[in-house]
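Long-time lurker, finally posting.

We've been working with ATP-dependent zinc metalloprotease FtsH (Edaphobacter paludis) and I want a structural starting point before designing mutants. I don't trust myself to interpret raw outputs, so I'm hoping someone here can both generate the structure tokens and explain anything notable. Sequence follows.
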Amino acid sequence: MDESNLSPRKRNNDDPKKHQEQSGRQFRFGIGYLITSLLALWLIQLLTTVLFSGATEIPYNEFKKKLAAGQLVNITIGARSIDGKMKNPTPNAFPPTVPFTAFPAPAGDPKLIEELQNANIPYRFERPPNPIGEFLLGYLLPMVMLGGFWYMGYRRAAGGAGGIFGVGRSKAIEVKPEDISVTYKDVGGADEAIAELQEIIQFLKAPEQFAQLGGHIPKGVLLVGPPGTGKTLLAKATAGEAKVAFFETSGSEFVEMFVGVGAARVRDLFEQARRAAPAIVFIDEIDAIGQSRGGVMRLGSNDEREQTLNQLLAEIDGFKTDASAPVIIMAATNRPEVLDPALLRAGRFDRQIAIGNPDLIGRVEILRIHSKRVKLAADFDIERAARMTAGFSGADLANAMNEAALLAARHKAVAVTLNDFEVAIERVVAGSEKKSRVMNEQERKTVAYHESGHALVAELVPHGEPVSKISIVPHSRGALGYTMQMPTEDRYLLTIDELKDRIAVMLGGRAAEIVEFQIISTGASDDIMRATELARRMVVEYGMSEKLGSVRYAGQQLQYLGTSVEDNSQISPETRQAIDEEVQRLITEQYQRAQALLKDHREGLKTLAQQLLAQETVSGNAVKEALAKNSASEAIATSKHGEESRKAVEV
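Top reply, 14 upvotes:
Generated this for you. Predicted structure of ATP-dependent zinc metalloprotease FtsH:
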């Protein structure tokens, strides 16, 4: 028999040394617990008797003396004791009576009733206790409680992962195959990732087909991509396609304050997966426990995160299941650069699948999926809606479609129109409108010329993206206005001229302020930041500087989270100065270029700004109309100038 096909519990029983150690551990625990539980039961009954009685125990001869002296009241005669109250020996003391308990001889006192009657002391006989109730409360209930603690402790001593109160149990949610309703039909824009996962499905459905040629079933699949690209949905859809059990958990659920709990949960998760095989184990945000163990000094050698990662690596290495019941581990992260190299080596996460933001075709598929339950207008153009959302992730598209449906419902519309979707995009990108934020007339005029400058430069540069809408209505995310551009297609390669045009468009707002008011404001802070970042990337990443050449000067980039960390430790001060000079040159050239374009079309700038001041929001057609009026004005001015020159020559 192949030893690799045995279950872990059976392999442990077949190992004599491990079996002997486990039996010894269980025996020592049983003996120690038995002695401890008996002592605890005796102490509980003793303390209960003392605490709940509250009476003073007196000798029986003293009881007879106080009875003869008439110092007793309210006597209760029980089967084993005599209880009552005796008068306080101190006059005018509080309380006036003190409870007592006396124990007569086993044979009893036959003259006690006669003496009580002669002394005129009230007495009564105690009802015999119910033996069943006394047994249940006094013995059975404590034994059941102690037995429960024994069972949990016994499992812990036997090597189980539950631990006391289930602290070491895995928090993974098990979804049965029949309960998984998500398939690849519910996933859009991830055709390449689905094609790679098809092989995993074949492994789960027909593992013997690959085992015949000596192939091994892959252990792990790592899904890498920005947030909101559908990594979790894709993993669940894979389980739905393969019709296998699905265990869903998160990396943060393994990390606790107590060292060793995370490792116990990892062991328990893998044990559950083995029992439910074939199955898929999905660990979301695996970077919570899989961060690199080198390069950062940590206090303490028994760090909980490190212990959990070590246990995860050990389980993956020893993760051998029956060839007819395979188990695949899937994980997702948007920070692959921080993962430990031991986690990514061959034999652990054998497959790494990159999932990016969807392209135009993918966005069309995603919008169709999310619009199945939304009532769209008859003229709703999904392809045009997809073109308006370039760079959106699947989660962004779902949010935009949902916002459009909510907006149409607030307006009591019968269907969602494309205009509702455009407003929803604005809400997702810039936030909700803040019409209550009142700007004075000069501020409104400055914002109008600023946004008009962006729009006109975008229309005038050779590679500018078409403008779809311009607004000077303030929004909740700090924007006093915005210019929305709608690309005609997805771009993956950009030339130096196209990047320069983008910088010119970003600086068009500041250039318009200079052209019209000869003074600048703080409204261009975000434009300057984005333009500077793009110019710096052109110099240090793309090698688009003739002075510095085709050399990369940028450090490590955290590409999935949208932030970057540059390592300039190996760049000389002279090179840093040259980089700054080149960035400044690019910015200055495009800033001057934007000013020159707006000066040549000043009439169009004024026309578009006046229209914005009157309407607050205009479409992209207003830009073309303003430029057309500017051209007509220039033609009239040129014609008048030519007529005057001709008359002067005739004279």
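Before you design anything, note these points.
The mean pLDDT is 78.
The chain has five domains: 3-50+132-159, 54-128, 173-294+305-354, 360-429, 441-633.
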